[in-house]
Amino acid sequence: MSADALSSVFRALADPTRRDMVAMLADGDATVTELARPHDLTVQAISKHLKVLEDAGVVSRSRDAQTRPAHLEAEVFDLLTVWLERHRQRLEERYRRLDEVLATLPEDPLPTETSPAAHHPDPDDGARP
């Protein structure tokens, strides 16, 4: 998947309404009317959201008599998974190296010079004539 296509998919999935629509389509194909039912949006607004998902390749639409049900394109998610997995592995490697560095550090912090005796000597400590 090209960087531009990947960006389009992430942009399409950035909207919570579209993510909800994708979740609904994971259960099966649905019409615009069916996708609009649980939302407080018009069918026209849902159609615009569907168009964004379609342009990104997340869904496709077919003709079934008078309706045009939307279908989730699962292959797009396989490609996203590969991309995310690659970055997860890189981050895990960086954390592993950080753990190794942290393991070499001493457990006890270095003593500090902020003890009260170091800054406030006792005036009765042999200072009398």
Quick summary of this structure?
By secondary structure, the protein is mainly alpha-helical. Helix content is 58%, strand content 5%. Strand 1 (59-61) and strand 2 (70-72) form a beta hairpin.
Give a verbal description of the structure.
There is one protein chain. The protein has 129 residues and is mainly alpha-helical. It folds into two domains: 5-73, Arc Repressor Mutant, subunit A; 74-104. The protein has six helices and two strands. Strands 1-2 form a two-stranded antiparallel sheet. The protein is elongated and about 100 Å long.
Q: Which helices and strands occur, and which strands form pairs?
A:
Layout: H1 3-13, H2 16-26, H3 32-36, H4 43-55, E1 59-61, E2 70-72, H5 74-104, H6 116-119
Antiparallel strand pairs: 1-2
Helix pairs in contact: 1-4
Helix/sheet category? mainly alpha
CATH topology of the largest domain: Arc Repressor Mutant, subunit A
Estimate nothing, just give the exact number of structural domains.
2
What is the number of helices? 6
- Helicity, in percent? 55-70%
Major β-sheet annotation: 2 strands, antiparallel
What's the shape? elongated
Order of helices and strands: HHHHEEHH
CA-atom Rg in angstroms: 30 Å
User: Strand-residue fraction?
Assistant: under 5%
CATH superfamily of the largest domain: Winged helix-like DNA-binding domain superfamily/Winged helix DNA-binding domain
By DSSP, the count of extended strands is 2
* Rounded average pLDDT: 85
The poorly predicted ranges are none
CATH class of the largest domain: Mainly Alpha
Per CATH, the architecture of the largest domain is Orthogonal Bundle
Largest beta sheet: strand ordering:
1-2
Instruction: Give the termini distance in whole angstroms.
Output: 87 Å
